[in-house]
Structure formats: structure tokens, C-alpha cells
Write a structure and sequence with these properties.
It is built from 9 helices and 7 strands, in the order αααβαβαββαβαααββ. By secondary structure, the protein is an alpha/beta fold. The chain has one domain (24-179, 223-256): Vaccinia Virus protein VP39 (Rossmann fold, 3-Layer(aba) Sandwich). β6 (238-245) and β7 form a beta hairpin. It is globular, with a radius of gyration of 17 Å.
Length: 259
């Protein structure tokens, strides 16, 4: 696949005015690409620190939920710097794991990470769009997306693409943030995500794109895990289940493409 040119915005990707309707903007996809390009260098560090080192455990859960069998092919969409892609390579018997992301700067970090992990023979990365995947129908056995579905311009369109490229019996695994049901946990999560994390993450990343204002806003304005599960079923997936992780801060949605 041909690489897209890096997006380097001359102005912040998100201002306070634009954050008022993050999921309704017609230019959301370009703003998201510019934003992630600007924070790629400190993305992994911020993920570890601000998930309190839980993000890797969530990814390990996603790998287990996928139930990869020997010889199967895995597609990791919105792979970012490749953490989940490499977790599949290290912890499953997949024959091939393909990571796809919309942001070239993320892929520039993912490829050397795979080389350092000695995973180059089973892993490859490509630039791509979740809403228009450049793969044939029924060409993968597992498709994953971690903390990326809410960043897609049209999530329903992406879910339909996921169904298209999965073989009958293929599994879809989605990790996404959610809201704890326990009132005390929900209060702490809200204060942490809306007040503390935007400040500390912005400082840690040296960010001027508005990324760490966008990210908590995109979570609070996006579908909850129940609505996401319903959307997955609406496009044709079956056996949709949701597992809440870390007191409901994160949710893992799993579904199967029917025969």
C-alpha cells in the first residue's frame, strides 16, 4: 500500500470551539490524523502513565478474547504504534498479523518496534482507512481495534467494513473506554479524565494540537458499551458480548461474523 504524506498542521487540530461537537464534524478524520501525528512520539508513554499501566493488560485480554487458532490471520485496525498488533504476534499462534493505521507518524514508530521485538516475519504494517480497508472480502479470521472506533469519521461504516473482511466465524474484538457504574469510581474517573489527565498528558507530550482535550471529550460524547454492542449487532455481527474491565473504565466487545 502506498504511504500517505505525513500531516503536519500549522494550527491546533482542536480548539475549544471545535471540541463542542467532536463526533459531528465533517472534517473529524483529518483533525484526528493531524492530532495523532503531533503526539506520536510520546503516545506510548502517555498511554502507560495515564492508564496507570493497565493498557497493556487490556490488550492482553483482547488477545485472549479473540481466540486465535494456529494459522489464522489477524487484522489490527487503528493500530497506532503497534502495541496490540505485537501482542497478537507474541501471545497467539497467528500466521500473520497486519496492523493498519490512518496516521503515518504512528506507523513510523510501529515498524522499528516490531523489528526490536523480532516479529518482522509475522507482522507487517500498512497505511489505511478503517472505513475503506484495502483488503479482499473474507480475508481475515480476527479483526481488532483498540481505542480507535470512536475516532473514526463514521463508526457504522467502519463496522460494516470489519464484517466484510472477516471470514464466516471470524471474530471482532473492540477495546474502548467506558464509564464505571459504581458512583464513586465514576466520579473519580470523570475528575481524572476531564481535569487531571488533559493537563498532565499535554505537558508530558509537549502537545499543542489539543489532543488531550479531544481524547476525554471524544470518550464522554461517544456511545457507551451497551450502545456500541447494539451498533455491532446492527451491521450483521452475531454473539455480541461485552466484558467490562478495571471497574468499567474500559470495555471489551466481542462478536462473530455469522456463517
Amino acid at each position: 500500500m502506498q504511504e500517505a504524506p505525513p500531516a503536519t498542521p500549522a494550527a491546533p487540530a482542536w480548539t475549544d470551539t471545535e471540541l463542542a461537537d467532536v463526533h459531528a464534524r465533517t472534517d473529524k478524520h483529518e483533525r484526528v490524523r493531524a492530532m495523532f501525528g503531533s503526539i506520536a512520539g510520546r503516545y506510548d508513554l502517555n498511554n502507560r502513565v495515564h492508564s496507570m499501566w493497565r493498557d497493556q493488560a487490556w490488550r492482553r485480554h483482547a488477545v485472549r478474547a479473540a481466540g486465535v487458532q494456529p494459522g489464522e490471520r489477524v487484522l489490527d485496525v487503528a493500530c497506532g504504534t503497534g502495541d496490540l498488533t505485537l501482542a497478537f504476534a507474541a501471545r497467539s499462534p497467528a500466521a500473520e498479523v497486519v496492523g493498519v493505521d490512518f496516521t503515518p507518524e504512528m506507523l513510523e514508530l510501529a515498524r522499528p518496534k516490531a523489528a526490536r521485538a523480532n516479529a518482522g516475519d509475522r507482522v507487517r504494517f500498512a497505511h489505511g482507512d478503517a472505513m475503506a480497508l484495502d483488503f479482499e472480502d473474507q480475508s481475515f479470521d480476527v479483526l481488532s481495534i483498540a481505542f480507535g472506533i470512536r475516532n473514526v469519521q463514521d463508526p457504522a461504516k467502519a463496522l460494516a467494513e470489519f464484517l466484510r473482511v472477516l471470514r464466516p466465524g471470524g471474530r471482532l474484538v473492540i477495546l474502548e473506554f467506558d464509564t464505571p457504574t459504581n458512583p464513586a469510581a465514576a466520579w473519580f474517573n470523570r475528575v481524572y479524565c476531564q481535569r487531571i489527565m488533559p493537563v498532565t498528558a499535554t505537558l508530558l507530550a509537549g502537545d499543542r494540537s489539543g489532543a488531550y482535550k479531544y481524547l476525554p471529550k471524544s470518550v464522554s460524547a461517544f456511545a457507551n458499551s451497551r450502545d456500541l454492542a447494539a451498533a455491532v449487532g446492527d451491521v450483521g455481527f452475531a454473539d455480541v458480548t461485552t466484558k467490562r474491565l478495571t471497574m468499567g473504565v474500559c470495555a471489551c466487545t466481542r462478536a462473530v461474523r455469522p456463517a
